[in-house]
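G., the chain you wanted modeled:
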Amino acid sequence: MTEPPRPPAEPEPGSEVSAPHCYRHADRETWISCQRCGRPICPDCMRQASVGFQCPDCVAAGARSVRPARTYAGGLLPERPGLVSMALIAINVAMFVLVLATGGAASTIYLDSGLIAGPFPPRAGIEGVADGAYWRLLTVAFLHLQFFHILFNMYALAIFGPVLEQLLGRLRFLALYLVGALASSVAVYWLAGPRTFTVGASGAIFALFGAAIVLLLRRGQDITNLLLLLGLNLVITFAVPGISWQGHLGGLACGLLFGVVFGYAPRRSRDVIQAGAFAVVLVGLVIATLARTAALTS
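Predicted structure as tokens:
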């Protein structure tokens, strides 16, 4: 049990007392002491505490003893929910402008980043996923050509992204977005034609839809509006020609799966379960991709 710091003894009449020196700056005199450990501190070392001032070491020790706030899924609670969502939106918009500035549909960036299976003859001038262009499985999620396409996807990301960041934390949210995009691409790789060219972040957005449905339902919140929005998007997906239903369903299935993992994993072991789920899904996507490549190139 520690005793509170004692005030300096008053000097006897006629005696001289030298001022204490800051424990971090030996050349600075000070009569101020840390309220926690009692060591003398100069103005540069003073840290405002609930009562008086503390030294930097005591402030750091106190911070280490406080458990950081956690999200519903176990991640670190973000100070600014939506920061990752805004960063993803910025990347998508930057890619959209870059594609338009370099030729639109004829842009090399567009042609080399969209998702197309292949394989193609050596002199065709294009390399599909089956030819080894596996980066297309991820870059496709940051590629748009039509204004209304990117407008809808980024609007949905701006609406649901911060909500999920608040529930998951930044790392889990970003992992969900990227793995959802990959799952969407692998579904397209398997189910679409080898010459079908696909672009857009819709698969990742549908992964967010799926995870949000499960998590909000798990928390007992009303998801009527979310279900109506999802239903409308599914109708559009199958009713309007040229929309990749394969990618939408692949992303949605991935989001529903991780919604269950995030929402129902036991608190004591949720970090291990969640990390294991991501590892298993990623391995499964790699195996599925290699199997599809073997089928297309055999």
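The first strand starts at residue 47 and ends at 48.

Shout if anything looks off.
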